[in-house]
Amino acid sequence: MSAPAGLWGRLWGFVRPHRSKLVGVVSLNLLAAVFDVFSFTLLIPFLNALFEQPQLIPGNKVVSAILGTTIGFLLDPADQMGSLRNVIVLVLLAVTLKNVLVWLSGQIGAQLQEFVVRDLRDALYAHLLRLPMSWFTANKVGQVISRMLTDTTNAKAVVTELVTRSIWSTAQVVSTIAIMFAVSWKLSLASLVVVPLTVLSLQPVLRKLRKGHRRMGNEQGEITSMVQEVVSGIRLIKSYGAEVREEQRFVTRNAAFAKGYVRIGRLALMSGPVTETLGAVMAVAILWFGARLVLVEKSLDGALLVTFLIWVMRLLQPLKQLSQVPAAAQQSLASAERIFEVLDSPTETAADRGTITVPTFATSLEFEHVTFAYGDDAPALSDVSFSARKGEVVALVGASGAGKSTLIDLLPRFLEPTRGRITLDGVDLRHITLDALRSLTGIVSQDTVLFNDTVRANVAFGRTQVTQAQLDAAARAANALSFIQELPEGWDTNLGERGSRLSGGQRQRLAIARALLSDPPILILDEATSALDVESERLVQEAIDRLLEGRTVFVIAHRLATIQHADRILVLERGQLVEQGTHADLLERNGAYARLHALQFNRGSE
Fold it and tell me: Is residue 245 a contact partner of residue 186, using CB atoms and an 8 Å limit?
């Protein structure tokens, strides 16, 4: 097949742990192929008995030895009907045994396929979890899902082709060709001329197929992304009456996707007709050449020629299947390439050079001339410097796109500074291991992330040893214990996708309980009360006040009224830190913060 050797080697790495099953499949297929050939070899004494030949076993040395050893004692030229009966019984037994072996190999082969795709999917999922945030920013959700589910399933077909089709077909071809050469090397050579012709004629098609399947894999990812976006934004679509527009977008992309697969199918279907046509030419040539050996040269028995022709015709099917394997495998190989693209992406841990595993936070966290840019874009942060002492509440304000979220993402090293450094008690964050650094930080965001799991699992998320008393204490402090106890199954109630069974305020309080339970010294708070009703906001704000006690807190402020008591307010504009100070100091300066404050409060008073 026209696939890079390295790709096959990497796929073999996932097959190797299950090689005992592979050996079993190969062995059973070889035995089944031997019994398949043997069942047709029994036609020779059958034909000789049918046409009342004096010798039921032909003079060919190899065939004579096989038949003489296995069934010679059952053949009696004087009892033609008895010999025919015995041969028929043996044919039935051989065919039955062959099919039992094929069934067993299929069962083991199916296990091998599923175990391989399971391991492939496990490896891909584990790797995805360890990729940096920048990778997820650059790749659409639909593409990630497509590689995780569709591509791993498609890659399984490589194992399917190799195990259930290629090995069985190869065993049939090898055993059949072996007996054919034993009968007549001249006829066999003439028969096999077609094989290299078939392989060479299909190579251009195979190259186009893999490129096409790789392109269609990307297209499928785009369709998955579109569906994911529509499902997530269905409320917005309905509120704007945009169903027809979204339907047309999907129909257009789906039509292009279907046309692409039609083009690929047109190429894939060429292998069968090419192989069969060449096979028919081969059969006619053998028939003419074999008739000459029987009638003119007298070097071949008629029964051997008939059986040889049957072998050749039986050979066409596995040859046809083998010729289709490369075409069928191209989609799998394209999917495998997409999978290994992800597996080859460097993980955070691979790039982590931190050595400090038990950091402390005793005095301050400092930004020293920090600049960050996404790729070749203009810097999202430019030369930002400030200090946050332990126990301070630091608020970040500024218009959308000012760089607030980027600055926050630098703290747990979701992003790394392009220039400058961030220090914790004088130690560069890059010298602290990712696990250790992130154990110091907790995040509560406005867009609360809850998983389709129990309340207990969501609050204890990331912790392996948690007592019920600890859970109750954290929930009580977060004003969440009362509603948790009222749920149908209490702590064991499943929350549904993204916590859909809870209100916005309840989801926020669970997120705060989770942060309280982890007890991080550094807290990142994306203002969590802006989208809540008055009563929910009061309960959440009380919980937040408890959460802030004794911690260094970074608050992304959307409403300036909520951060007036912050120890330090940082004002960002277009990635630059333009002002910092207390609420009163900044109002007195009558600068950027004062303008934002006036704009917001004047709007609120209208």
Answer: no
Q: Is 382 helix (H, G, I), strand (E, B) or coil?
A: strand
Token digits of residue 529: 């009360």
Residues with Cβ within 8 Å of 43's Cβ and at least 6 positions away in sequence, in order, are 91, 303, 306, 307, 310
C-alpha–C-alpha distance, residues 557 and 560, integer Å: 6
As a whole number of angstroms, the distance between CA 221 and CA 149 comes to 11
- Whole-angstrom CA distances from 476 to 128, 458, 465, 519 are 35, 15, 19, 15
Q: Could you tell me the strand order of the sheet in which 381-389 lies?
A: 381-389, 364-372, 419-424, 427-428
Q: Residue 317 above 90 pLDDT?
A: no
Q: How far is C-alpha 419 from the chain's CA centre?
A: 35
User: Using a CB cutoff of 8 Å and minimum separation of 24, what contacts does 254-260 make?
Assistant: 254/223, 256/219, 257/216, 257/219, 257/220, 257/223, 260/212, 260/215, 260/216, 260/219
**DSSP E strands, 466-567:** 522-526, 552-556
pTM (2 d.p.): 0.72
Instruction: Of 52-61, 367-376, 506-515, 555-564, give the lowest mean pLDDT range.
Output: 52-61
Strands 441-444 and 522-526 turn out to be parallel
Q: Please identify which residue in the block is written with the tokens 């450094």.
A: 421
Tell me the pLDDT tens digit for each residue of 438-463: 888 888 877 777 877 888 988 888 77
Give 117-139 pLDDT, tens digit per residue.
888 888 888 888 888 888 887 88
Return all residues near 575 (Cβ < 8 A) that are at least 6 apart. Answer: 378, 379, 380, 381, 382, 384, 402, 403, 406
Name the packing angle between helices 168-183 and 185-192 (round to 10°). Answer: 140
Domains of the chain from N-terminus onward? 5-348 (1.20.1560.10), 352-440+521-534+548-606 (3.40.50.300), 450-519 (3.40.50.300)
Q: Report the candidate in 218, 303, 257 with the shortest Cα–Cα distance to residue 44.
A: 303
- 54-82 core/surface letters (b: 16 or more CB in 10 A; e: else): eebbbebeebeebbeeebeebbeeeebee
Report the amino acid identity of residue 491: W
- 402-434 residue pLDDT tens: 899 899 999 989 889 999 999 999 999 999 998
pLDDT digits (tens, 9 = 90+) for 472-483: 888 888 888 888
CA atoms of 78 and 57, how far apart (whole Å) = 13
Cβ-count burial of 255 within 10 angstroms (0-12 exposed, 13-18 middle, 19+ buried)?
Answer: exposed
Out of 107-111, 278-282, 523-527, 580-584, give the one with best mean pLDDT.
Answer: 580-584
Among residues 416, 460, 458, 457, which one has the least CA distance to residue 437? 416
* Structure token digits, residue 131: 């990729």
Q: What is the DSSP letter of 378?
A: P
pLDDT band for 563, please (50, 70, 90 cuts): confident
Q: How many residues does the chain have?
A: 606
